[in-house]
Automatic annotation (TrEMBL):
Belongs to the UPF0053 family. GO terms for molecular function: flavin adenine dinucleotide binding. The lineage of its organism: Bacteria, Bacillati, Actinomycetota, Actinomycetes, Pseudonocardiales. Its main location: membrane. This is Putative hemolysin. Pfam families: CBS, CNNM, CorC_HlyC. It comes from Saccharothrix ecbatanensis.
Amino acid sequence: MTAAPGRALWSGWPGDPNRFLATIQIGITLAGFLASATAAVSLAEPLVPLLEFFGGAANAVAVALVTIVLTFLTLVFGELAPKRLAMQYSLRWALLVARPLDVLSAVSRPAVWALSASTNLVVRLFGGKPDADSEQMSPEELHELVGAQRGLNAEQRMIITGALEIHERRLREVLVPRRSVVTLAAEVDVASARAELAASGHSRAPVARGGHLDDVVGVVHLRDLLHDRGGVAELARPAVVFPDSVRVSDALRRFKAEREQMALVVDEHGAVAGIVTLEDLLEEIVGEIYDETDRDVMAVRAAEDGSLVLPGTFPIHDLVDVGVELPDEPDGDYATIAGLVLVLLGHVPEAPGERVRVSGWTIEVLAVEHHAITSVCLRRDRDGSGEEQVRGDLKGDGDQGVDPGGDRGQ
């Protein structure tokens, strides 16, 4: 397959920005100079007889009128319209002008060299480095650039944005907390373990002595439990372990290199904070991958008044999937709706009923177990008021069958 002629010409320009910029500037300067000179000679003089009522100022008025008209035409046809067209059809126009630009560069090579040398000298005088690359685009600028691309649909923008964000996100933000992890006791027989794992709706689970995550033997897959021979501990394979400070992007590379789909996540003290799966990490890029075993989604209950009942473990960054956006959420080291409530309250609630407001939503604590918020209710404020802490009793929806142990995909 042969590349378009313009592609080969353009391939050399990025490595020599001085040549590119100097050639462009020479073309712009020559066009402006020739247009001005031509207009002054050929256009202004024929207008003088028509402006005789200005007397001796007729020539000056003619030049001024020609300059104004020429400036208008130059801005529209020489600057604004071409730039707008180039932004909309960048590749097509780049290939179209590649050959003329290359010819202009060859013809004006001496002038380009002189301009480049002079530019390098001035850059050095101001403390710059002529050979240095331009500053890298910040993540915020990349986000704005993606959002401004009208040719991308919402799903494409979400995937690109997710790919940009995984480098900033840590495992502690996406893990399944330990209290929500389905764990198989190393002492149980294979048949019991198979029944327990199948009932949980997951395909793999950690195997731990006494069922305690701090004493993990390994990870077992449902297919390993198909035959009733050997013990569960004997069938478990060594578990991959990640610190909770690892970036999502780095964890994805480790999963790919080790061909694993589940890992234990430990905190700075060495205690198991939870688990993370390959599906969890991929969902950070492509969005939620829902199936019949996704407890987070299954646990959400919507009432007729528009309120939502969620498990406390519901991930903050998944709220948009249920129609909740919290642009004013406070900064903090939390990843779940329960963590957000704790940050806003400033203390651990001892009983249901406490409420907070954020971004036009009221969040009420519906259930608390062992100092953990296990269920909350979200209601949109009618007045759209801002963030404010409130205490009181709302008419709760706690009887709607919330699964307080809702967890993400294992």
